Structures are given as structure tokens and as C-alpha cells.
Amino acid sequence: MDIVLIPGFWLDASSWDEVVPALSAAGHRSHPLTLPGMNRGDVDRSAITARDHVDAVVAVVDGLDPGVVLVGHSGGGAIAHAVVDARPDRIARVVYVDSVPISDGDNINPNLPARDGEVPLPDWSDFDDESLVDLDDSLRAAFRARAIPTPERVTSDKFALSDPRRYDVPVTVIACEMPSGMLRQFIDGGHGYTAELALVRDVSYIDLPTSHWPQLTRPKQLGEAIVRAVQPA
Question: Which residues form the signal peptide (predicted)?
Fold first, then answer.
């Protein structure tokens, strides 16, 4: 099965390096992506939009046989959901890694501090303690060294979704900093964060308690969780 791996903010394709072996061992073909503007070096990211990221993933999906699995981490989950909206007939499942699908008219996180059209990785003090579980000093230093600024418009652009067939595509949420039980409570309570997830007809959950970046703190276990999501019992 073709599995397209969409990184969250500040990360490129290499962030999946320690996750891919578990997928390969299970016989899957991995396609880790570096999204537009997320290459290293002195790059002008100010004109890159959320739609550019969506279109880049759609192009990859169109080059593969139907039945693609999308894996979206964090902000990459919003990109994955927009790709489902664009190509609902080509996607077999979406796996949200510490993420949920975004609603029509919403943006990912416009409150992140931007500079010159891009959003650098913020100070650790800007994150909740739950986000940083297992992310020790060594991992934090490695993450900061590899972090790439995210285009500001990717964080702030509003998403336009229109195809109701997106709700027919099965979803698995790999819950890390927020346990699946809390997500279910949010759905039952009508919380806006899970409004779109509540409309999906087939949702399953896998709990992987760790940081918001499990590909850094528990990559082997994340790979195994993705395999379980793709091959449910």
C-alpha cells in the first residue's frame, strides 16, 4: 500500500526517517514529503500558501494508484484533510498523528509568531507541558537544529472544503499529547476542535502517549501504530 507521509510545521521528509522502517517491514511503500518552502537554506517563503501545500500532496496522490493512505502529523493533518476533500475517491484512509481534520473556513494556527513571512520554531516555553513529554534536552536540541521555518500563510490561510464525500473516508487518530478519551469527550460535548472529526462516519483511535512529535520521541512505536491503522484487525 502507498502511504504518503505529510510532516507538521518545521519539519521535512527526513522527520519520518525512523518511522519508515516499520512501514517497509510490513510491505508498504512510503512517500515522505518535503512540502513547498520547507527546503533548507535562505528561501523566500512569504508567498507560499496553504493551498500550495495541498496541491503538492494532490500531485503526489494523482501519481499513485487509487487506495492511497495519507498520514498527517499536526498541521499536516489539515493538509491531509484538504487532500481528501480534493480526491475522496483516491484515498483509502487518513491517519492523523496528534491531529484532527480541519473544518471548512478554519485555519491551522494563525497565532504563531511570524517574522518576514515565515514562522520559526518558537521557544519551548510557548508549548504546553503535554506537548513536550519525552522530548528531553538532547531531542530538543536536535529538533531545533533541524527545524525549518514554516511559511506564515500556511499557518493562517483559511481552508475551503466542499465535498461531503470526505466524511466517507475512514480515519484513524493516533492520540499522543491528548488521549483518545478526551477527544471522544470533545465530540460528545460539541467542541469546535473536533467538529469536523465528529462528521466522519468511520473513526478509530490508537493511543500513543508521548510528545506532540512522536516521530522524534517514539518513532518505532509510531511506525507500528501506523501499520495497525492501515491493517486493522
Answer: none
